[in-house]
Amino acid sequence: MLGVYTGSGGSLLELPPAHLPAADVLGELSVPAGLTVCARVGGHAGLGRAALLGQTRDLLTRTGREAIDLLVLDGFDPVTPLEETASALDTLLTRGDVVHVAVAGANAWQLACAAGAGLPVTAVLTEWSLLARGSEDLVEAAEYLGIGVIAGAALGHGVLTGKYASRTPADSRAANDAGRGTSALEDYLGPVARSVVNGVVKAATGLGVTPLDVALAWNRSLPVASSLVAPRTSTQLEEILRSALVLEPEIREALDQISEPLRLAMR
């Protein structure tokens, strides 16, 4: 999958939180020099100096890389002084362990605080799709601060492909989560979300394309540096890479209106 992705011009690869095995898998692969790797640190460990330095060194060891291209601070740490976090990042940048810094899981005022405290943030990661419209205030703050935006979960964790329209596929993420007594997709499967998906499916049918094409086309029109997707199979990846639909303004406007309740509910 990595070979197909980079061979098609893919240039950004996001690793999940540091405690998961993706970093070890990446370390076993031959990674093209032009691939930008972004990796998350922080999370439950917080954004203190010891946590940031230790997790970054662990990532470098496990991935076999000389530097993390984009280090993502995962979540806002209300306990650690921002000055301590800024000092740790300065150390990592000075040593060359990290090239750029991003934040994820922050809202607009937290991003403003981070920038005001001198954190060298160049990008913000936030879920943004037709099923996740609550980040638009954050995007406005990022634009004002001169910070780039990366849209996460561009396909709404797979829901925008329409595969959950009538049932939950046995091999899907939702089915696996439900088997553990939880569902990470609960917010994406409610009545309002279903109406959005129905609108995407209707638009796709009228255009003679797939719901995936419509959802990705909507995201490609956003003011973002990149939109992240998470294919689980080569077939899914190839379908994503083939997608090149451009929406007419009136269709995009109709999709905006259909998903407007989700934007208002998440503010």
From TrEMBL:
Gene source species: Brevibacterium samyangense
This protein's name: NADP-dependent oxidoreductase domain-containing protein
NADP-dependent oxidoreductase domain ranges (all copies): 42-259
Superkingdom of this protein's organism: Bacteria
